[in-house]
Fold this sequence. Notes:
By secondary structure, the chain is α/β, with parallel strands linked by helices. It has helices spanning 43-51, 82-92, 97-110, 126-138, 156-173, 184-190, 218-222, 225-239; strands at 2-10, 17-26, 32-36, 58-62, 67-70, 144-148, 176-181, 193-198, 203-209. It is 38% helix and 23% strand.
Amino acid sequence: MELESVSVRYGRAKAAVTAVEDVSLTVEPGEFAVLMGPSGCGKTTLLRVVAGFERAAEGTVRVGRATGIVFQQPRLFPWRTVGGNIAFALARHGVPRAERAPRVEELLERVGLGGTARRRTWELSGGQQQRVAIARALATDPQILLMDEPFAALDAITRERLQEEVRVLAASSGATVLFVTHSAEEAALLGTRVLVMAAGPGRIVAEVPVPWGRDADPAELRGSAEFAAVRAELAGVMRAEPGR
Length: 244
Ligand code: ADP
Ligand code: MG
């Protein structure tokens, strides 16, 4: 995934607002890159450009095939079952009907929701619904997984659990991940590299490598001095820059 001098504007002519200015960014295959920054700094805009939902006014965007995307809200179809939501994604990507049910079950197992295919989505907790959204994003084996503050609306315990699950899922799937968050804690835990953004206009102001490996135990990591130092460094960079 490669962005070169990308600028994005909303609106036209004199009324145009520059949401993102001159962002260059390369994410290598299999990397877990985190975009971190305060509200309004252009994180969602950048993700939407990578997803192809938004056009860059300037610069070039090169993205590999097939992306899966997870938003802050699960955005499931309430009139479909849990399995039906995932089957819909499979159908849209041309997976034959006969192959869908076993694939749905396999995907639900991967996110810890085996046996829930026939449940209604609104019977599930917020965390479970977000797991369904993750399963749906993984349905087509995407090369690239885009996640926009997927855990921001969840309670702290559920958030921690899902962070740990996504860490494992990302590593095992081999997908390249671009993950957006405003949390230094989340960025430090998940990222192999963290890109810190600032607003006015949105740009990348720092790049912080994460020194531990992806197999580091999350519980041990959260309690370690090394982790606290990286988290503090990230929070410090973010605090020094304007939000909006
Ligand atoms: P973040 O996700 O970091 O909170 P966004 O990418 O949503 O930031 O927004 C970046 C900037 O672009 C903000 O100033 C926001 O108000 C503006 N913006 C976002 N979407 C739109 C839109 N559809 N129309 C006009 N301005 C927008
Ligand atoms: Mg956003």
